[in-house]
Design goal:
By secondary structure, this protein is an alpha/beta fold. It contains six helices and nine strands, in the order ββααβαββαβββαβα.
């Protein structure tokens, strides 16, 4: 029996359908039905979680990581992270930070840096921060010191006068992509500390994109330039 099929109470196993939502499990990571208990003889590899094998895995993870322990997933991710970092200013407890962290996980950023307040709104991260390296810096100066030690170019993302269009600008392979907050954007200190600045070309009436949407676009721009894509 295929262990990747899904258990439906009282109906046995069935293949998941697009749009399925698990309304019985309020856990923030259970955004899909996942898979039921492992069928047949259990695997003995250390990366499998006995509790998940017994009860099923409803986490929002790719199929490769079904039934794996969280520590094993993080260890595997750490062997193949990309060389770009993501930094986010956090002076106003911006609700977008969680969504940016989730995108950083999706694009396998090396590390996420929270600049300013240490506490940040994790709701939008949908638990992906548990799989992501996250470092706190109380100030822009501390982020800059980190970037200099690690040989990382600081790339500010904001629509200011000196910004170059992201569509025609190559992001450095080893960099920190620095994002501001919804509304005010990057602080003057952050812009002054950056080695370069980029912006996303827009064609409508609004002056700015949602911060989390902009972050995903810029990260994917790095992926298009530097990442080794499946099948290549």
């Amino acid at each position: 029996m295929n262990p990747m099929r899904k258990w439906t109470q009282g109906k046995g196993y069935r293949v998941p359908r697009l749009g399925d939502v698990n309304t019985d499990n309020p856990h923030p990571e259970a955004t899909t039905w996942g898979v039921g208990p492992w069928q047949g003889e259990w695997p003995t590899d250390d990366h499998f979680d006995p509790e998940l094998l017994e009860k099923g895995d409803s986490r929002n993870v790719v199929d490769k990581y079904r039934y794996w322990t969280m520590d094993a997933i993080v260890a595997d991710l750490n062997t193949r992270r990309h060389s770009f970092h993501v930094a986010i200013e956090n002076w106003q407890h911006d609700l977008n930070i969680g969504s940016i962290v989730r995108s950083a996980n999706a694009f396998l950023a090396d590390t996420v840096h929270i600049v300013g307040r240490k506490r940040w709104n994790r709701r939008g991260a949908m638990v992906t921060d548990r799989y992501q390296r996250v470092i706190h810096h109380p100030s822009i100066d501390e982020l800059v010191s980190y970037a200099r030690r690690e040989g990382l170019t600081i790339v500010a993302v904001d629509n200011v006068g000196e910004s170059a269009p992201i569509e025609t600008t190559a992001l450095p392979r080893d960099c920190v992509i620095l994002f501001g907050q919804e509304g005010p954007g990057l602080s003057a200190e952050a812009l002054a500390a950056a080695d370069m600045a980029v912006e996303i070309t827009q064609f409508g009436s609004t002056r700015s994109l949602n911060a989390s949407a902009a972050a995903a676009i810029v990260m994917h721009r790095w992926i298009m330039t530097h990442a080794e894509l499946p099948g290549e």
